[in-house]
């Protein structure tokens, strides 16, 4: 199980969670409801699969390396984002977050 306290230490983080590849919530912490955490787990698993497909598609279409494996993604809005690496994600406030640092922390979990 991932140490979600490390994800919550990312500046701007307000919730973090871990999910399995089927979209089931493994664990979460932070300022969101259980229902929202469960929905986020499904969204993260689905987007992780889409990122894998897109990376494979770009590799095949362009004939270039470097797209695979897809290891993470971000879904960003004007104020908040979900950042995911592997099976761990964090919700952040964009104005308070350094995305490069956040992805480095997630990559270490």
Provide a descriptive summary of the structure in words.
- This protein is α+β, with helices and mostly antiparallel strands and 109 residues long.
- The chain has one domain.
- The chain is 39% helix and 28% strand.
- It contains 3 helices and 5 strands, in the order αββαβββα.
- A 5-stranded antiparallel sheet has the order 2-1-5-4-3, with helices on both faces.
- It is globular, with a radius of gyration of 14 Å.
Shape: globular
**Strand tally, please?**
5
- Strand content is 25-35%
The rounded Rg comes to 14 Å
Main sheet attributes: strand count, strand direction, barrel closure? 5 strands, antiparallel
Strands of the widest sheet, in order across it, are 2-1-5-4-3
The number of distinct structural domains comes to 1
Helical fraction: 25-40%
- Straight-line distance between termini: 9 Å
Assembly state here? single chain
Return the average pLDDT rounded to an integer.
Answer: 96
* Main structural class: alpha+beta
């Amino acid at each position: 199980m991932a140490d979600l306290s490390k994800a919550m230490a990312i500046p701007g983080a307000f919730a973090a969670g871990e999910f399995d590849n089927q979209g089931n919530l493994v664990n979460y912490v932070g300022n969101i409801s259980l229902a929202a955490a469960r929905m986020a787990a499904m969204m993260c698993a689905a987007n992780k699969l889409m990122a894998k497909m897109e990376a494979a598609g770009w590799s095949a279409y362009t004939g270039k390396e470097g797209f695979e494996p897809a290891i993470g993604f971000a879904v960003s809005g004007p104020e908040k984002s979900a950042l995911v690496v592997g099976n761990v994600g964090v919700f952040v406030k964009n104005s308070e977050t350094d995305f490069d640092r956040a992805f480095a922390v997630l990559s270490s979990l």
